Structure prediction request, 270 residues.
Amino acid sequence: MRGIQLTGIITLTTALLLVTACGGRAPESATSEGATETGAVSSISEPAAQPTPTPVPPSPAPEPTATPEMASGEGEAAEESAQVETEPTAAPAEAMDWLTVSGKTDDGYNYLGNPDAPITITDFSDFM
Amino acid sequence: MLGAEVGIKEEYVRSGQVRLAFAPMLDHADRSIQTHQAAECAGEQGQFWALHDLFYAEQNDLYGGDIREVIKQKAARLSLDQASFNACIDEQRYVDLVLAQDQARKEMGIRTRPSIFVNDQLVVGPQPLSTFTELIESMLDQ
Prediction:
């Protein structure tokens, strides 16, 4: 009798232990983080140890530096370093010749150039 | 501004760093009125700066003869609808405008020719390109 009881107790205890170890939603796992992220700290698949991981994985891109993406191949890039880097994409503002743009200022004067230029030169003068 | 203007255009206007504006000073009576309003007439057809540059390049011609005829002859060398331009001159379409602008500059106390504002900074009298370059660069650095 006693043996049976003992066995039973042991079995029960073992079962309990197993359940505790494997069960994710545990109050035990939540305590350490305070889980601000998603209310559900489910992470079922991951056992007790550290509940941290899943919710917000760090952004996959490790600070892209543009250059690695631009280069079609490192070997080529190395060779081209001695030459002019012309590969890339659209040439930005250099393509615009602002000498082709004209208009009127708010004061009604004729202007030439970029209407959004940081500097305006206003020439008060006569043609003679 | 004259000589410095060419350099400013190439170094700063073309790249979009500087916008260049021109304001009339009518210091030569009717000849000034006619030339400035002619530039406005050319501006109707996108040729303000072309006529502006031509007037400065051939400035001496503006002092003699019938000024309206001189103007029409010069404008004939530009890409203009000559009939429209001449009509504008004959109508004196922009006389009131240039007179008003001239009056405004007098009220601002601008008397010396040329008077050039680089943003709010005033530069008086003809200056070499270097004067403007230094001023522009210091402003761009800010």
In short: The CA atoms of residues 80 and 86 of chain A lie 9 Å apart. The beta strands of chain A are 102-104, 110-113, 119-125.
